[in-house]
Amino acid sequence: GQNIDQPTEMTATEGAIVQINCTYQTSGFNGLFWYQQHAGEAPTFLSYNVLDGLEEKGRFSSFLSRSKGYSYLLLKELQMKDSASYLCAVEDYGNNRLAFGKGNQVVVIP
Amino acid sequence: DGGITQSPKYLFRKEGQNVTLSCEQNLNHDAMYWYRQDPGQGLRLIYYSQIVNDFQKGDIAEGYSVSREKKESFPLTVTSAQKNPTAFYLCASNPGTVGNTIYFGEGSWLTVV
After folding, report:
1. How far is it, in rounded angstroms, from Cα A68 to Cα A59?
2. With contacts defined as CB-CB under 8 Å, which chain A residues touch B105?
3. Closest by alpha carbon to B26, among B89, B69, B70, B90?
4. Potential cystine with A42: which of A64, B36, B100, B104 (Cβ 3.0-4.6 Å)?
5. What is the pLDDT of residues A54-107, one digit of tens each?
6. Strand stretches in chain B, DSSP E
7. Chain B residue with the nearest C-alpha to that of A92
8. Is B31 on the interface with A (CB under 8 A)?
9. Contact yes or no for A95 and B43 at CB 8 A
């Protein structure tokens, strides 16, 4: 089984940096995904980590520590359009199914 | 353009009725999924299929049924046995190999009236 935990909400100022954490417990691990979801819309893919370390993609970076069951998503130079829910999802070993956390709502204020 | 098409976007169901949500993909993906999302919550897996004519229950399959007769299509039926069906339903697909992200349709809003 899988257990994925994310904090629920945070507020940050435009131009700032925000870190969103995700901890997980899983019997098998094939990788961790981060998605962005705007209200009423489908999630869109942001990043994928399968090895320990930091993956950087423009303003977004994602970090993984498999031994600690921990990941974070770092959003830099926040923009108003970054106001959304950020979901982490763990891929289960052997069956390609993703288990999602409840998401972290980020509100960007001027 | 390739993608996943869900229909209808909005659906109202009377109590006791079955309704079917359509999901079609032209990405040639082997695996397809149905997720349910309640307000302020994450996605919960209802059913998934890794290959044609085969599917498995997810975490909340009770009250739902699916079929996978064609690679492109994975319809979800919400039966009258599902006591609280009002939610946002998302269909997704991926190539079926490890490490590939899943791609989502635009979602369907189901409301019981």
Report:
1. 25
2. 42
3. B70
4. B104
5. 999 899 999 999 999 999 999 999 999 999 999 999 987 766 788 898 899 999
6. 4-7, 10-13, 19-25, 31-37, 43-51, 54-57, 64-66, 76-78, 87-94, 103-104, 108-112
7. B98
8. yes
9. no
